[in-house]
Design goal:
One of its GO terms (cellular component) is cytosol. It comes from Polynucleobacter aenigmaticus. This is Transcriptional regulator. Keywords: DNA-binding, Transcription, Transcription regulation. This protein is α+β, with helices and mostly antiparallel strands. The protein folds into two domains: 132 residues, Jelly Rolls (Sandwich); 80 residues, Winged helix-like DNA-binding domain superfamily/Winged helix DNA-binding domain (Arc Repressor Mutant, subunit A). The protein contains ten helices and twelve strands. α5 crosses α6 and α8 crosses α9.
Length: 250
């Protein structure tokens, strides 16, 4: 793990292109230096490295600056259940607040840079900057809503509906950040998608082949092109442009 101070990097929240996702739009300019001071370090991790482990003491929350991260829960039988995927500008580690320990493993899907925010300092700052407190509440609410909708989908949707929704949601999140949303490299593998959607990897492979044969997507290894978004929305059972998964992290 390579940890660099923001002073050494010469870039704080006020100059980061992802500020609009981490910070509320209404925050006063005079409040930005205090936010910059709060983000003490940026962590550089290689693909497959742990940001934190399940059971470790909770002391910080994290925001992805670039790269991507998965969270997974370790079961007593040695298996792992993928709980979510995080893209640039998304915040993770919040599940540790209640139990005072992280409730999952956070593992990079690719080389990544993450902002580490000591939670005690963040909490103190939210009392001084009401807009920041409001943003934090919105992030918590989105996370709860996403969890509820995800588990509802696991119990009520067919595998192809879940996969179509997953691809739509990923596309929407990329578009929100100004990235290419119709052609992109999937940061996660099929096994990880299968775990997250609660199906077997063979089911994901068959569904992707079915989508490709139907002209909905083109896929080569992890490079995917979403050809027919309308068709994907139809399969997911949702009307454009909204979708059941609309939140910042999945």
């Amino acid at each position: 793990m390579d940890m660099l101070s923001t002073a050494r990097l010469g870039m704080g929240c006020s100059t980061c292109v992802l500020t609009q996702f981490c910070l509320p739009a209404g925050i006063a300019i005079e409040g930005l230096p205090r936010v910059d001071d709060m983000v003490k370090e940026r962590i550089h991790l290689k693909k497959g490295e742990y940001l934190y482990r399940q059971g470790e003491e909770f002391n910080s929350i994290f925001s992805v600056r670039f790269g991507s991260i998965k969270t997974e829960y370790s079961l007593v039988n040695g298996r792992h259940q993928v709980m979510g995927f995080y893209l640039p500008g998304e915040v993770l580690g919040l599940e540790g607040i209640d139990e005072s320990s992280y409730q999952s493993n956070a593992i990079t899907l690719e080389d990544s840079e993450i902002c580490m925010i000591p939670f005690a300092e963040f909490q103190a700052l939210t009392t001084q900057i009401p807009a920041l407190q409001g943003q934090f509440h919105r992030i918590l609410s989105r996370g709860l809503t996403q969890d509820q909708r995800h588990f509802l989908n696991l119990g009520s949707l067919y595998a192809i509906e879940r996969l179509a929704g997953f691809l739509i949601h990923l596309s929407l999140r990329l578009a929100l950040r100004g990235y290419q949303d119709r052609q992109f490299i999937l940061p996660m593998g099929r096994e990880e998608i299968a775990s997250y959607l609660g199906v077997k990897i063979e089911t994901i492979s068959r569904a992707l082949t079915r989508f490709s044969d139907a002209g909905l997507i083109q896929i080569h290894q992890r490079f995917i092109t979403l050809v027919d978004m309308g068709g994907l929305y139809d399969i997911a059972g949702q009307a454009k442009p909204g979708y059941l998964y609309l939140s910042e992290a999945a």
